[in-house]
Amino acid sequence: MPRVVRCGLIQAHHPLSGEEPVARHKEVAIEQHLKLIDEAAQKGVQILCLQEIFYGPYFPAEQTVKWYDSTEPIPDGPTTKLMQQVAKKHRMVMVVPMYEVENTGVYYNTAAVIDADGSYLGKYRKTHIPHVQAGKNPHTGFWEKHYFRPGNLGYPVFDTAYARVGVYICYDRHFPEGARCLGLNGAEVVLNPSATVAGLSEYLWKLEQPAHAVANGYFLGAINRVGWEAPWNMGEFYGQSYFVDPRGNFLAAGSRDKDEVVVADLDLDMIREVRNIWQFYRDRRPEMYDEIVEP
């Protein structure tokens, strides 16, 4: 019997200005996403991924300590606990990106992975942390080193009820090394929640990640939020979330500017079929690659 899994990606705008209190941002965004999660459940989604730090604006547009108040421990924080209940209710595997606190002053850009029975499986911490200007205003950008310590958990793959799932986060997608590690660790579906704006990365959006899917023989789902976020307005979050198969074919894609659940049926048997043709893992030469891990 074919192993077909229905997967979903949520892309959404953030409705508040960054000048609002942090607690209000979380309250409004979580309520917004609960409605979209219900929509995904109605569409029969079995594996669902939310966008990068889904419960607020993408605050690294500025550098201020205010946003440290949005951190939560994972898995013991309230949002993880809430999403465990939601996942169990819908029998849905969920990837939930949040702003994690490990200790005071030690914060990570993290995604919690929750199984269909509501159990917490583990987390991935964003490995590659950018610090770059975006837009014409020299004061706005992806100032992420102000907020996030580089991830230190490697590239885990999670055995969920429906598939073996790996996570990469936003800027990670520019680095093929981690994408390969996820494949070597057995990922069948890799999910990449992102927040990225037009004029900076859009020309790469539909190039890099299909290439990762082809080079590693797995399915990949890429998310980008939508809209403009005040007061920074550093650029348009251009949506266009999508799924691609191990041949790099686009299976489903979202709009540029609408909140929506992007859904695709992934035939996991294709992984074996494609890998039996393109023997990239057999033909690897790791003994020849020492140079790429030199500092």
Overall description:
This protein is of the alpha/beta class and 295 residues long. The protein has one domain (4-293): Nitrilase/N-carbamoyl-D-aminoacid amidohydrolase (4-Layer Sandwich). It has 6 helices and 16 strands. The chain has helices at 22-42, 78-90, 176-184, 202-205, 208-216, 269-277, and strands spanning 4-11, 47-49, 93-103, 106-114, 120-125, 131-133, 141-143, 157-159, 164-167, 189-194, 219-224, 226-227, 237-238, 242-244, 250-253, 260-267. Strand 6 and strand 7 form a beta hairpin. The model has no long low-confidence stretch (mean pLDDT 96).
Structural features:
6 helices, alpha/beta, 295 residues, 27% strand, six-stranded mixed sheet, Nitrilase/N-carbamoyl-D-aminoacid amidohydrolase
What is the strand and helix layout of this fold?
Elements: E1 4-11, H1 22-42, E2 47-49, H2 78-90, E3 93-103, E4 106-114, E5 120-125, E6 131-133, E7 141-143, E8 157-159, E9 164-167, H3 176-184, E10 189-194, H4 202-205, H5 208-216, E11 219-224, E12 226-227, E13 237-238, E14 242-244, E15 250-253, E16 260-267, H6 269-277
Parallel strand pairs: 1-2, 2-3, 9-10, 10-11
Antiparallel strand pairs: 1-16, 3-4, 4-5, 6-7, 8-9, 11-14, 12-13, 14-15
